[in-house]
Amino acid sequence: MNRSARASYKPSMDLVPEVLAGSRNAIARMITRAEAGYAEAVEALAQLYKHAGKAHIIGITGVPGAGKSTLVSTLIKSFTSAGHKVGVIAVDPSSPYSGGAILGDRVRMNDSAEANHAFVRSMATRGHLGGLSRSTLEAVDILDAAGYSPIIIETVGVGQDEVEIVTAAHTVVVLSAPGLGDDIQAIKAGILEIADIHVVSKSDKPEAAATVSALKGMMALGGHAGHQAWDPPIIPVSSVSGERMEELKAEIFRHREHLATSGELADRLRKTCRTRILGVAKHLFQQKFNAGPGGVEKELQLVVERVHDPRTAAIALLGWESGNEE
């Protein structure tokens, strides 16, 4: 940090009241610090977490090329026209060279966001699997505390077992596109079962009806991981023309009411909190043992030399006695 930057630097705790007041500049700065993992921001993020928990979190996921960004742009317009203060976290693949986000999603949404006073932020995965970045939910906390709701999380195009969004969002929208090849391949990707709402994009294409039929067939076989009390609807939409977008928005609100009345919202909150606790613990573990030669590097060499096996090395790092690790 250069001298002029240091002179203008505001401590994170000083940003907290500004975030709560809805300052877009303060929100952006706090998200940047969360994403960078600044130790100085930990206390401020803890304070903002206490003010969060009011927003409805919508996850938009699906295979690459399904049209997620276009759908999100259309939803921004729909929600803001109804008076909602919308926040969007678009998780982009990390650049293999810089580690930063490839900002295609943000560029495509920017016009819609600026015109409709939404807050859109792209975040890099930084190698984190699961379709989200490590600090995604900290960014959601910041927007939540600032009064944004709904908050939309658009994931990276996900693959098999990369379904972390189900533990982050209240309502998961899985987007499928016609004409992307074998319809069954998307089912094999392991993401359709997590949908609270199925959306088929580009409904004006003739292949859309076949995709809807394939989804209905899968649903008839019980392809849903959630509670059976909710029957996930299948909605073909056109983000370009806006066809059936109001129906999609209505189904999102209907699902929110279902979560509240069925008691499932509390169950999802517990799962989210559990995932976050374990995620932070894993991150702190990696930080601790990557810090110096006395940690993982020492055990690494012993494993390379086959003096220790990986399990023995892990037990040694944890400071446990062999045989007492269960």
TrEMBL record:
Spans through the membrane: none
Keyword Repeat tagged: no
Recorded superkingdom: Bacteria
Record keywords, A-Z: Chaperone, GTP-binding, Hydrolase, Nucleotide-binding
Ranges for domain AAA+ ATPase: 54-198
Keyword Nucleotide-binding: yes
Matching InterPro entries: AAA+_ATPase (IPR003593), GTPase/Isobutyryl-CoA_mutase (IPR052040), GTPase_ArgK (IPR005129), P-loop_NTPase (IPR027417)
Name of one Pfam family that matches: MeaB
Signal peptide (from-to): none
Homology family: Belongs to the SIMIBI class G3E GTPase family. ArgK/MeaB subfamily.
Protein's UniProt name: Methylmalonyl Co-A mutase-associated GTPase MeaB
